[in-house]
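Quick note —
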Amino acid sequence: MIPDHRKNSLNKLATFVGNGFSENHVIQLGKIAKSERIFFHNDHYENYFDGMLVCDNDDDFHIHLNLDRGNTEQSRRGRFSFAHELAHYFIDEHRIPLLSGQAAPHGSLHDFAHRDEVEEEADYFAGCLLMPDAALRKVPVPRRFSVDTIIKLSDAFNTSVLSTVLRFAESGTHEICAVISENNVTKWYTRSKDFPDWPIRFKVGHTLPPSTVAGEFYTKRDAKYKTVEDVDPGDWFFPRWTPTAQMHEQCYYSDSYGYVISLLWFD
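Predicted structure written out below.
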């Protein structure tokens, strides 16, 4: 967990780095790299990493994107990998050990449930760089929150739905909780600061509560519900009080990567 003061510093740094490099809300990562004389390469590295930042013997920096895992300069997955590696360059505590040889280059893999502090900081910086706070609030979205809100933002910033959900939970205009699962196993979750801080009924690494919309998708036939569903907060949480607003759940299904995002929110 990144402390709030550190998040503020990383957010300010990312905003500074991206200033002047936005075209219709889309941050031009290649131009940022060129402005810093960072070389970038697209090549095949099998399944070893998504991106990697390397400092060579001439103290030049190189970003490598792995085509074998769907990372290109323009793909949404690749843009996050690119931004993540730029984070390792712009964050002093990450770049200086590479430059001095105190740290060896290591490949980064997409995993928002990082337990490694350095990787977690790079993910956070990447989200802030690709989706700045001010721009996040300027993109026209539907008045009522739903998965469509996330998709509109994802399209506007040319970012993945998953990274957009994480960023929206941090700085969006509506409080949400998002639970990411795969094969009926909870991978990780996040919630906005203003979302009720209730104890949860699920555990990371364990099966989802069966009565949830996502849980039914995994356990029942023909239960792939994409619409907004009214749900009982007790399906997901141990509520400490009775909410005055209706809680909703809507799922986003990623057929290409095999995960499900359960979005939870109140009116």
